[in-house]
Design a protein that fits this description.
This protein is an alpha/beta fold and 361 residues long. Helices cover 47% and strands 8% of the residues. Strands 1-2-3-4 form a four-stranded parallel β-sheet, sandwiched between helices. A two-stranded parallel ribbon has the order 5-6. The chain starts with a helix and ends in a 6-residue tail after the last helix.
Length: 361
């Protein structure tokens, strides 16, 4: 006959098992009940919700004025005054209000179940781009996704994990830094490649990563192209002597070439992967529209950023001591010299969710 202590231990173990089974059933029911149970973000700062806060890099926004219009006015590593596209995608799809960074040690099971962000500000397709700023290369982001997948399987089982990943949407935003941080800023790649050769080099890498995500179970992928890079405030400043403060058309042509190649790459992949749904999100056109018709989108300033003088301030150069920072970021397209304001991200995400994402459902 069991002692009272032994009985209590048995009941405790049984109760724990019941809780674990019930919790797992809840997780499975959640996955099966959602048209889009989760989203994932891969790529650069346009999606990074704070992964760079947990690595040794200067490319982060964990200090004011970044995050000043975020909830409780707390900087989170997002390179904006508030939310990013990542957050608006998650919110717009009815998944959750904010998309957490995968490297956050405070992640909970429910966070894993509904998707995370693997993006890293400052990174690119070219490993050299990530190395320049000591950020997370894309290959490492995919390794993190493999790690994540094992954690998910531990929560709901391998079969349900595969189902969730199959129905999730994978957003990719990458390529900007390969040109503005690497190719046009440093001589290494320019000595090796023409612009067209470098574009082909990047797209070959993109194809490899794209196929790898597909082989890991991704069947719904949204590809975000690069903006008109020569119209970023920092590029207007760097080329101001030649373009008199206007957009740098040489860099814009490189962006156009990359986007054309990216669109062609997607077209070439579709026949090879019939079960794969791909949406091409034309970030470039939307930014161009904002610049051409700012009043239509209730914007006043499109050539300069809100932070500081709006001409060169970015990451650590955009801080709480930076003078001249604007009082109302909602009237600006850019918050710092590369990254958009929360309002701009909200407008862009709304268009993508209405116009493009339904193609994946």
């Amino acid at each position: 006959m069991k002692s009272r202590a032994e009985s209590l231990i048995s009941y405790s173990v049984l109760y724990s098992l019941i809780i674990i089974i019930a919790q797992k059933c809840d997780y499975i029911l959640f996955i099966r009940g959602q048209k889009v149970p989760a989203i994932f973000l891969f790529g650069d700062s346009y999606g990074d919700t704070g992964n760079n806060d947990f690595i040794g890099t200067i490319v982060t926004g964990d200090f004011p004025p970044y995050g000043r219009d975020f909830e409780d006015h707390i900087p989170t590593g997002r390179l904006s005054n508030g939310k990013l596209m990542s957050d608006y995608f998650a919110e717009g799809l009815g998944i959750k209000e904010l998309l957490p960074p995968y490297l956050d040690p405070k992640l909970k099971a429910q966070d894993l179940l509904t998707g995370v962000c693997f993006s890293s500000s400052g990174t690119g397709l070219d490993n050299l781009t990530a190395h320049i700023l000591n950020v997370i290369p894309v290959w490492k982001q995919i390794e993190y996704f493999k790690e994540y997948r094992k954690k998910l399987a531990g929560l709901v089982g391998e079969e349900e994990a595969a189902t969730m990943i199959k129905r999730a949407i994978f957003f990719i935003s990458i390529g900007t830094n390969d040109f503005i941080v690497n190719y046009f800023a440093l001589p290494t790649r320019r000595l090796q490649f023409t612009v067209q050769e470098y574009t082909d080099f990047l797209l070959n890498i993109y194809t490899v990563y794209f196929k790898e995500l597909y082989n890991l179970g991704a069947t719904r992928i949204a590809v975000i192209n690069v903006p008109p890079l020569g119209c970023l405030p920092i590029e207007r400043t760097l080329g101001s002597f030649l373009n008199k403060g206007g957009c740098d058309e040489k860099i814009n042509q490189a962006a156009d070439g990359f986007n054309s190649g990216l669109n062609a790459m997607i077209g070439g992949l579709k026949p090879a992967f019939p079960s794969l749904k791909i949406a091409y999100l034309d970030y470039h056109t939307l930014i161009s529209e904002f610049i051409a018709n700012p009043s239509k989108y209730d914007l006043d300033v499109i050539a300069k950023a809100c932070c500081g003088t709006g001409t060169f301030e970015i990451v650590f150069l955009c801080n709480k001591f930076t003078p001249f920072t604007c009082p109302d970021a909602s009237k600006y397209l850019f918050f710092d010299s590369v990254h958009l304001t929360q309002k701009a991200y909200q407008n862009i995400s709304s268009v993508f969710l209405t116009r493009n994402v339904p193609q994946l459902l």
